[in-house]
């Protein structure tokens, strides 16, 4: 969430960023008019509160029977104040709702345009010319069961079995080893969060048909789409000491997504499913640290996939493909030898103070001043897609899966599965 005063003082920048991110129906003019109306009501409310206090003081100063005129004036002020305070509460709630629709400001080095305008900044590894389809391979080995998954949970739910279940565990253990080496604190997190956390993360779809969360009927709860959500709320309403930052957390969780708005995207097999497990990196830091930490998180992602021997490239995501909270985002896409193109694997985002402002997470500087922290997130291992990448690159046509060297310690040092 952006501060209303920041929006007022940087109106052109806010409007430009919103437009570049694709929020075409957002009117900053209307939001500022709404704030003007709120201020007007607030001023009248404060004037009446002052009049109420002055009237009460006069009544307290009278010995004996109170002056009826003062009593009548007090009743009139009370009635008017009650109405104004309700108007103020309604107007503040309306403004808060509108502010949630305003996306974060993009950095100057973010490419402009839609998804096709994202810029490749690095390639690593030698791309294979031929690979084995992950779904055909896993099904032939009886390692995945979408049919029974659909029977108990619906389309795009599944069971992992035998070698693929073991591979998932090996990938998690390897990813966990990597993030611990880089100083992250491992955490398991709640799989449900309140609407305040959900909104605080800034997962506001551009259109209603893109809403991706599963909500719990009758409860102020939703299933998480990523551990980023509960990690964002971990220090909600807290003031952190400057010398404690940066903080690095690695959250492991199940992730639940409707996968709304995926028309035209690659969805075969495990690539886009409604439930999967993921190890997520997260950092709370000082504002002046966030750009450097963004690069650090990206470097860890690269370290993981270079160690696994999976060819990839890095792209700087264009503004039109950025979500609401991100000021800048990198995607690491692996080379799919089956589809002969790069496909989504991990991402990392710098959300500056956008999420921290919404969940009220601040830092107390050594000089006593208080400001909002910056938050960043990045995927260590998204296990469903990670397994797709491994199967496509390491499965053989004779029905075997070669085990990447770094995963062997977690699979009884087997050469193949």
Protein topology:
Layout (H helix, E strand, L loop, with lengths): L3 H6 L1 H10 L7 H33 L7 H32 L19 E6 L9 H7 L3 E2 H8 L5 E2 L1 H20 L3 E4 L3 E2 L1 H7 L20 E2 L4 H5 L6 E3 L5 E10 L18 E11 L4 H19 L3 E5 L11 E9 L4 E10 L3 H6 L2 E3 L5 E3 L1 E9 H12 L23
Parallel strand pairs: 4-8, 7-13
Antiparallel strand pairs: 1-10, 2-3, 5-6, 8-9, 9-15, 10-11, 11-12, 12-15, 13-14
Overall description:
The structure is a single chain. By secondary structure, the chain is an alpha+beta fold. It has two domains: 4-99, Serine-tRNA synthetase, tRNA binding domain (Helix Hairpins, Orthogonal Bundle); 115-410, Bira Bifunctional Protein, Domain 2 (BirA Bifunctional Protein, domain 2, 2-Layer Sandwich), CATH 3.30.930.10. Helices cover 40% and strands 19% of the residues. The chain contains twelve helices and 15 strands. An eight-stranded mixed sheet has the order 1-10-11-12-15-9-8-4. A three-stranded mixed sheet has the order 7-13-14, with no helix packed on it. A two-stranded antiparallel ribbon has the order 2-3. Helix 3 runs antiparallel to helix 4 (68-99) and helix 7 (162-181) packs across helix 12 (383-394). The longest helix has 33 residues, at 28-60. The radius of gyration is 26 Å and the shape is elongated.
Unreliable stretches (pLDDT < 50, length at least 5) are none
The total of helices stands at 12
- The N- to C-terminal Cα distance equals 48 Å
Q: Which class best fits the helix and strand makeup?
A: alpha+beta
CATH homology superfamily name of the largest domain: Bira Bifunctional Protein, Domain 2
The number of distinct structural domains comes to 2
What sequence of helices (H) and strands (E) makes up the elements? Answer: HHHHEHEHEHEEHEHEEEHEEEHEEEH
Number of strands: 15
* Average pLDDT for all residues: 93
Q: Return the CATH class of the largest domain.
A: Alpha Beta
Strand order of the largest sheet: 1-10-11-12-15-9-8-4
The third-level CATH topology of the largest domain is BirA Bifunctional Protein, domain 2
Helix content: 25-40%
Beta-strand content bin: 15-25%
CATH architecture of the largest domain: 2-Layer Sandwich
The major sheet is characterized as: 8 strands, mixed
